[in-house]
Amino acid sequence: MGKYTEPAEQLLEKIGGSDNISVVTHCATRMRFVLNDNDAADVKAIEEIGLVKGTFTSGGQFQVIIGNEVASFYNEFTKIAGVGDSSKDDAKQAAKQNMNFLQRMVSHLAEIFTPIIPALVVGGLILGFRNVIGGIDVDQAQDGMQTFADNSQFLQGLYDFLWLIGEAIFQFLPVAITWAISRKMGTTQVLGIVLGITLVSPQLLNAYNVAGAESIPFWDFGFAQIDMIGYQAQVIPAILAGFVLAYLEIWLRKVIPSVVSMIFVPFFALIPAVLIAHVVLGPIGWEIGSWISNVVYSGLTSGFGWLFAALYGFAYAPLVITGLHHMTNAIDLQLMSDFDGTILWPMIALSNIAQGSAVVAMIYLNRKDKQEQQVSVPAAISCYLGVTEPALYGINLKYLFPFFAGITGSAIAAVISVGTGVTANSIGVGGIPGVLSIQVAHILMFCVAMVVAIVVPFILTVILAKTKIGKDAYERLGKR
After folding, report:
1. pTM higher than 0.70 for the full model?
2. In what residue span(s) does the PTS EIIB type-1 domain sit (predicted)?
């Protein structure tokens, strides 16, 4: 009998047997099931299996947290269960059968942005480093106040060089978005890339220069003129254009004979898509994006900004549970484009830190529970580095009171952040390293908010653990 045979047999039995499994796959730490009947799974019994560190349901998938051993466990489980190996795409498609309209929409948005998040995070770190060497004035003795870059040719060269990457990620963002859409829709990815390039081509007037331009160049067709405006860093126009190209290609593949499809499908899909993008979707998407960013920015900077901040700080972690947090990526990017920074993203980083601090409090409270330490310690580290799911599902939601301590601390920290105008240059690592993405003028107040996000959830979790709420949670989990 192998190491994973017994827990695999237990999981198969408690999940409802092979007949209840529609699709199963795994990610870095979790088994992902699409079940025919979710109610047939005995969640409490599954969580009592020694190898299992927690369960949750998200995006139509029942997920079982195993940890770093998940790949080996998965191989043993599928062998015992007699279920075939399924790809993550298969799992996503099957899971959508269990989703409502809003969940499907959020899932689509997540599938667009998830592949490009690594680039956005890298871009945020690069802009943060440029902040440090090119934006902070320091006393250089007889030369007075200068930045590090002003005082060092090497750092000046590095500052200029790093913008090459920052520009590629953020100004040329539409290219990544249209590629991600073609990838998600299963259409020709290189056409998505070409479409994105036509939105940011150097021959177009840069989107950042439109407001101050004396005149706007145009294509003259005799009977009509089309403004030659670029959509650098614009999100909505790229999303709309990407879907038009994808659906055009899908439709054309159905009506054009396969023998000539390689020639005519790309031709009749790309040219109309580019034309529609510049004539219709670009201007409309620009207006929609500007409206959304203006509403969010006005709400955050108004007299009631503190209330908006408190609600958002309180609600962000619950949004992660529902998957709705993926929608904030588009808003953040639009704010960056329209206002040269985002007030929203710092609150996300603070929320992640707050949930991690609640886990740290649980590590302290349960310091004698070696089994739980195996889940809580990695979860806290992960949370502080911007990935909250292990902390939320493995610890905080299981006990509940640390979860509420976390969102309370997050709300207070968010009020401080918004109240003092803390702004990030870009999306970055959504945890403690997120300080690198904050604009230089706001780093000190972000650090103050970050201390609040660390201290308040920790203290509140320890206090709640001693109340009836905490005692009931321990008793419910059989910890005391």
Report:
1. no
2. 5-87
